[in-house]
Each structure stands twice: as structure tokens, then as C-alpha cells.
Write a structure and sequence with these properties.
4 strands, 2 domains, 65% helix, Macrophage Migration Inhibitory Factor, Peroxidase, domain 1, 209 residues, alpha+beta
Length: 209
């Protein structure tokens, strides 16, 4: 049973979220990339104000992993026939098991209230990207035909960091559809020859191992 204090905290967070996102957004029938960014930015600013950025970022990653790993959960949050009450029960249970901060739990419930839980993946990914940019990190995408170990991924991250003189946030994906080798992209920047050679050396060592 919720106490009067917990209702007051939840109400305050909902008011703050509405303030950050803007009343105009809730009147729109569509949901654009810009709309997602407003929700993401609201979560970032509230987390920052409460000194909870690291915690909320980790909890966001936990939800994204759950979406990717659980077909049932992914289908649930995208099912328009599920009632808001049932969705809240599921979210609150997940939050309890994973010890989510109240701010994050209330944010997810706010998405339910606004019928935006369907877009959770987009919103949380954008939130994590905002956190990364604020830290001055460069986002890099890595794909490989062979499944790489954490040690191999770390070595590639170090090589990229040296060449770009900036901390790299590397998103790795094992892609069996690739004919072979590694594919690396940082934003719209293509890897230059010198970096390709270093990656090739790492790849050759992995093949010879």
C-alpha cells in the first residue's frame, strides 16, 4: 500500500516530467524522433538534478537488455490491448526485483500514463546517447562475423580511443551475415587506412589464436 508521502513524490515527478516535456507534446497524435528526445532529455535533466545519472543509465541498460532478451516483455510493452494498470504492475515488479530508483520507476509509469511505453526502447537509447555525449564520448558501432570476447572488444576500443583521441563508447553486435572480418563506424566517419591496418592486425592475431 502506498503512503501519502510516496504519492506526493510520484506526483511531483510527474509534474516535473510534464514541465520538461511540455504540454504541447501530449496533445500530438504522432510520436516523432523529436518527441522521443524530449522524453529522453527530461529523464536526463531530472537524473542530473538528483545526482542519479549513473544509476539511471545502468537501470536503462537493464530495461533495454530485457527488451532484447525477452520476447514476452518486448511484446507486452507494445501490446495496445494491455491495460495501464497491468502494465504498471509489471513495471513495478521489475523495478522491485532490480532495485530501480523511484525516479526511474515513476518515469516508466509516466510513459504508461501517456501511452508511450511502446516507445521505451527508443526513449532509453536516446537517453543513453545523451549521457554519452555529455561525457564527451564518441559513439562507435562494431560488427564482426566471428563472435568476439570481451578482451578482444576492449582491445579494439583502446585502439580506436588512441586514434580518435577521445573516449569511445562501443556498441558491439555479432553479425553472422557478414562474409568475414570487422566492420567499424564512428558516426558518419569512415575508418581511415591507418586504423584499418591496426584493426587488421588485431583480426589476424584473433584468427591465428
Amino acid at each position: 500500500m502506498k503512503t501519502q508521502g510516496s504519492y506526493a513524490i510520484q506526483s511531483e515527478i510527474f509534474i516535473n516530467l510534464q514541465h520538461y516535456i511540455g504540454n504541447k507534446l501530449s496533445k500530438n497524435t504522432g510520436f516523432s524522433i523529436t518527441s522521443a528526445e524530449r522524453y529522453s532529455l527530461a529523464l536526463f535533466e531530472l537524473s542530473d538534478e538528483n545526482n542519479l545519472l549513473a544509476q539511471i543509465e545502468n537501470q536503462s541498460l537493464s530495461v533495454l537488455n530485457l527488451i532484447n532478451q525477452s520476447r514476452d516483455f518486448s511484446s507486452l510493452i507494445k501490446d495496445p490491448t494491455i491495460s495501464q494498470q497491468d502494465l504498471s504492475k509489471v513495471i513495478n515488479k521489475i523495478g522491485e526485483i532490480n532495485k530501480f530508483d523511484s525516479l526511474f520507476k515513476n518515469f516508466l509509469n509516466f510513459l504508461i500514463q501517456k501511452r508511450r511505453l511502446f516507445f521505451t526502447e527508443r526513449i532509453l537509447k536516446t537517453f543513453i546517447e545523451i549521457c554519452s555525449k555529455k561525457r564527451g564520448e564518441l559513439k562507435a558501432e562494431l560488427k564482426s562475423a566471428k563472435k568476439l570476447s570481451n578482451d578482444e572488444i576492449n582491445k579494439i576500443t583502446i585502439e580506436l580511443t588512441k586514434n580518435f583521441i577521445s573516449k569511445i563508447r562501443l556498441n558491439y553486435k555479432h553479425d553472422e551475415s557478414l562474409i568475414g572480418g570487422l566492420v567499424v563506424q564512428i558516426g558518419s566517419t569512415m575508418i581511415d587506412t591507418s586504423i584499418k591496418n591496426k584493426l587488421q592486425q588485431i583480426e589476424n592475431r584473433m584468427i591465428g589464436a
